Amino acid sequence: MDSKANIKNILLVEDDSKDVELTLAALEENHLANRIVVLENGEEALDYLYERGKFEKRSGGNPIVVLLDNKMPKVNGLEVLKTIKADENLKLIPVVVLTSSRETPDLVAFYKHGVNAYVVKPVDFGEFMNVIKHLGIFWAAINEPPPCMG
Amino acid sequence: MRGDEAELKNQDANVSGQSARTEQAEARTEQAGARSEQTIRASELSYRRLFEAAKDGILILDAATGRISDANPFLIELLGFSLSEMVGKTVGELSPFKDIESNKAMLERLKRHGYIRYEDLPLETTDGRQIAVEFVSNVYQAGDKKVIQCNIRDITERKRAQEEIRDLNVTLEQRVIERTAQLQAANQVLRESEERFRLLVEGVQDCAIFMLSPEGHVVSWNKGAERIKGYKADEIIGKHFSCFYPPEGIAQGKPEQELRTAMEQGHANEEGWRVRKDGQQFWANVEITAIFEEGGCLQGFAKITRDLTESKRSAQAIYDKNLELQENARVLARSNSDLEAFSYSVSHDLRAPLRHILGFVDLLQKSAGPSLSEKSLRHLTTISQSARRMGDLIEDLLAFSRLGQSEIQRTEVNLDGLVRETLADFQAETTERNIVWMIHALPVVRADRALLRLVLVNLISNAMKFTSARTEARIEIGCAPAGSGETVIFIRDNGVGFDPKYTEKLFRVFQRLHSQGEFEGTGIGLANVQRIIGRHGGGVWAEGVVDAGATFYFSLPKQNGSING
After folding, report:
1. Looking at the DSSP assignment, which residues form a beta bridge with residue B432?
2. Confidence class of residue B5 from pLDDT cuts 50, 70 and 90?
3. Chain A to chain B, count of Cβ pairs less than 8 Å apart?
4. Least enclosed by CB within 10 Å: which of A112, A146, B399, B481?
């Protein structure tokens, strides 16, 4: 296991504070909540990844995974994905879309641009909790992150 | 003419004049007797030659006895007697003359008048030929005795020629009469045909047919012209046809131009506005044909004008209607894309608040559960249930909306196989129940397999759902009799059935005939069935009796229809 200083962060990009709260509540049960960096929209997400603006002096390297909502003001999830996957330094970061939409055009667009997983948020809270918990465990503990990052 | 005598009016005078001259000559002869015997002989010789060479028959008779004293060679030749056979005989004794009135009577007349003439006397020659002669006799004094000279001219040829001419004339006259009759008949036919044609043209109501003089003045006018142009014949005949054109047409020189075109090309055709007598304009199709006489001289123009205002108006109406339809199609496309946006929005935006409700109710139950009353906890449960139900409705609505959008992929679908496959999916639910399945042989249809499967899933699950209270459920699937162009499939159950008066409501979105407590469901299933079958160009219907089961039917066209909706 990595040392405490090297623990990778999980980026949660979500503009809806209620979804943030429910997601955090789910991750709480995995004791992963303290590793979550919550960003309110795509613009902030990109600033974080490029270490610019208010994240110019942030600590830590790239996140182990980006949990990305799609429908957000300013820069939406798809645009964030496109930017990450087009950047040599960022493209290896796993990106998981966390969305309400199961619409075919959305699925196609995200997979076309190299999304690593597409997760539809269940309406039922029990299912929602399960899904988020699984996601947290999978990306934080099971999945081996790409090397040479950060 | 036969036997008729033509006696000249002044015959007596002539004859007496003649005999006077003869007497003088005799007197002169006596006087000249002394002059020269030779001169007389010479003169006699001349007469003799003349007598012998004449191309008329000449007969000399002794007036006192009526007997023949001489005949010239031509007559001998003509009658076929020798001179000796004739000399000394009376004319009546000669067979050719035996049929004419008696020699005596002839002589009487000769004596009285000194001259007789038969214009056309039929004679028979000794060898039996029938000939016609002109017979002229004179009496004159020759020396001491009176002689009768008969000149006989063979007019057989002349007569035949005359008869031929007469016959020809008769034939000719006959032919002239016949030809005249023919011409008259032809003229009559022509007149009748012209009259019919004139009546026809005059009676035509649908188009104006009239004639123009070479200069463009109206010469004739029919009923159609009267109707279309508004002028009576007597108002317009003689007027120049340019009065049918609107002022701008006249300013552009259109009337003259059209006549010129018709003259040069034989024909001119144009569509344009024309003016009625009352000033009203109408859209006309005009045809002008130049009419030339045989020599190539321009006789005038035939003009046919049709009023196309109505058809132009309906063409305009069709055009307008088309525009309207195009606009409708645009509106429809827009509303379709609105609907898409709507369903997208529903998918995204309605789910999130539901999730939040459910999420926070759950969090609340966890954090405050122990301190809440049972009633409050029940309220929280109700909130969750309602939110979940709303979630189900949203999912169904989305699925229904997607059915209307996806492309239909038609293939040959074996219904037997598809039904078996679908039933296998229900196995888990059927094991605990007593269901008698009656599956008849089913045909191959042309349809979208996945969508057709959805139809079967909906109908079979309905049948199972509504027979759930039966100790023995009976579900039958088969092919119903249908027209040649379609296949009809039915699914029959012995379940709770339905009241036929609500049949129409069955297939509407979220319409239910049973409460949620009786049978669970959102009421989208049959709406989906109808939408899918409708998109295949088929129909759905149902028969039911309360508590005595229901039968659902759907039809699929056998031809490749492509109805989207």
Report:
1. none
2. very low
3. 54
4. B481
